Amino acid sequence: MTPLTEQDIRAAFVNCSKGEAKRLTVPRDLADRPWDDLDYLGWRDPRAPDRAYLVTVLDGRPTALALRCPTPTARQPRRTMCAMCLTTPTSGVSLMVARKAGKAGQQGNSVGTYLCSDLACSLYLRGKKDAGAGARLPESLTLEEKIQRTMGNLAGFIATVTA
Ligand SMILES: [Zn+2]
């Protein structure tokens, strides 16, 4: 994806207030991120581990989501598959919840999805990060097709947030 600046990212959030977007934690090492290998940039707030964020570029426009990772009350199944990249990394998959955009969000509506806990889908797809034994099912798709599928899944999730 195209490298983004902190300003681009803060302006891209679709499901939090302008004030929240201004205050939330954006990685300081943006210049060093492997943008060429990223379909989206995801990060966790080191000061608030239940908060995660991701930003991608959809139709040429940066689009970012604020996510919560609620503490699981029940034990989650040991191996859950990420709904974006279809990997089952040994480092885990988390249920992440996005408050819906606009009025629906103000009324408390949210949507959830399972995502790689470390938000490293792009690196798992490209084999740049080891997801562990048996983490990916053998597939005949090309990397390009897997990336397209992941982006389709992500765009679909963002569409349910902004719907
Ligand atoms: Zn993933």
From TrEMBL:
This is FBP C-terminal treble-clef zinc-finger. InterPro entries: EF-G-binding_C (IPR032330). GO terms for molecular function: zinc ion binding. Pfam families: FBP_C (PF16571). It comes from the Bacteria. Residues 8-161 form the Elongation factor G-binding protein C-terminal treble-clef zinc-finger domain. Keywords: Metal-binding, Zinc, Zinc-finger.
